Amino acid sequence: MSHPLSVLIVEDEVLLAVELGFLVREAGGVDVGHALDSADAVRLARTLKPDLALVDVHLSDGPTGVDAAREIAGSAGAIVLFMTANLKRLPDDLAGACGVIGKPYSDRAVRRAITFVARCLRDGAAPELPPPGLVLSETFVRRWGVDQLEAAG
Q1: How confident is residue 153, by pLDDT bands cut at 50, 70 and 90?
Q2: What domains appear along the chain, each with residue ranges and CATH number?
Q3: Which of 10, 60, 61, 80 lies 20 to 30 A from 142 at CA?
């Protein structure tokens, strides 16, 4: 990947969405759009084709973020990171998402997670272990060779 990471923000709290957009830009990415509910999230993901979607579980239309993430990761082909305080609402497979950053999170944790994902996408493998605050799904641990890094460390 030679272009900046394009990021869709799926968050119903407007101030949080704006803050996430700022953090995306600080991490060298491009904030391509914001969605407040699952229907807009899926529509924007299909239209904009972002590299990454930051998705909250509870959106303005209810706890629909998991379904939106599954659609975004599947049909839109974006990498999804959940940004949620509702970790118990996530299915074991994380709905096809790459991972999760638990709320409350720090600005630094978000920037580092975005940078980590961008490097993994660019290189096709993890350059290092995931930063603190980012928990990867088992699928992406294997896909990006994180399990090999853990075994070597």
Answers
A1: low
A2: 6-152 (3.40.50.2300)
A3: 10
